Amino acid sequence: MKRIQKRQDLAINGADPAFSETLHVGRPNIGNREHFLKLAGEIFDRRWLTNNGPVVQEFERQIAEYHNVKHCVAMSNGTVALEIAIRALGLEKEVIVPSFTFVATAHALHWQGITPVFADIDSATHNLDPQSVRRMITPRTTGIIAVHLCARSAPIEELQAIADEHGLSLMFDAAHAFGCSHKGEMVGNFGACEVLSFHATKFFNTFEGGAVLTNDDDLAEIMQLMRNFGFSGMDNVIHAGTNGKMIEVSAAMGMISLEAIDGVIAANRRNHQIYQEELSSLPGISVLSFDESERQNYQYVVMEVGEGSPVSRDLIIQALHAENVMARRYFWPGCHNMMPYRELNPRAGQMLPVTVQVADRVVVLPTGPTLDEDMVRTVIAIIAVLLKDAE
Ligand code: T4K
Fold first, then answer.
1. Whose CA is nearest to atom 41 of ligand 1?
2. CA 5, CA 154: separation in Å to the nearest integer?
């Protein structure tokens, strides 16, 4: 690994890249291979590959236990889990969501003929701003989907109060928040239900996968039907449904992900701490913190490039990419600026001033067990030298 000390060391100035192998945001965390292969061998021996097999059932039990919640309904991915939860809750017409999220939150509604209405966010947490949510309520509103963005819990109590006041359903997109707590209680226990994603790039992965966590027995039962075409036993369809089933080999991946989880948290925490300590001393640069009194997965290192920075956010991204550091602008430019929403409501941005501002400032940096301390310090040095050079 090259040392970055002066402007001539930077790849955007013609030097070789700092990293010969690309660093990614969301590099999959992979647990014990031998254990995975053993579980996969047993799956082959049983010739039971999907449709609520024994590994999925055990996986659901373990995930529910980990989150101290009654039900985990495992699904094929987080987007299908969102769609099924939305349908099971009977949401329709308009549902309030943040624009500052991965587009799946909005698509899961639009795909079912429901209008996602975008509310603004809080500049400190990047989560929904309850005051903006209030402003977006109309007679057509049926629910709120809040996101625990980048593993920080949404303003749960404030949103629940708004939902109760207006008779709305509240559910959470907890795709980023596996293993996190809010006021000491694990994610999965808030709102009507909470949706996890186990995509390869997530803190905890099952290759592809997702789940809905809930304490509501009836909701869990409907979702179990919906993910399997509405089948209740052989030849007996009692509900409309789709195919949202998790496969056995995904659940096996989930088992080894769960075994490895403490090591991943420790690596993420160490990396986040170094990034935050070192980057926060640079002009105009800050890194969002985590509440250390809660359980955290530390999966997202969210850096903000403020007005005091001598270089733009996009120049930092360009410089990092030149060094093979594939930093991301998650979640620029906001869902309201993506299709089809941009065309459906071209003026949505007027109600989303904080979203627009934050989307132009964020850089998400690589972390995880594949980055050691030296690699993190090299990423920091790239940014530091770039800024110093521009001063
Ligand atoms: N709600 C929220 C808030 C979400 O963030 C997501 C998903 C969902 C709902 C939906 O859940 P799923 O249906 O996905 O379960 C990625 C992921 O595909 C997506 O799952 C995730 N959010 C989102 C934040 O990130 P892209 O389009 O940015 O992925 P991509 O292909 O650019 O990959 C990200 C980085 O990871 C790249 O730098 C390459 C690297 N990578 C990727 C894969 C797949 C690897 O190193 N190995 C891999 O196997 O969306």
1. 27
2. 40
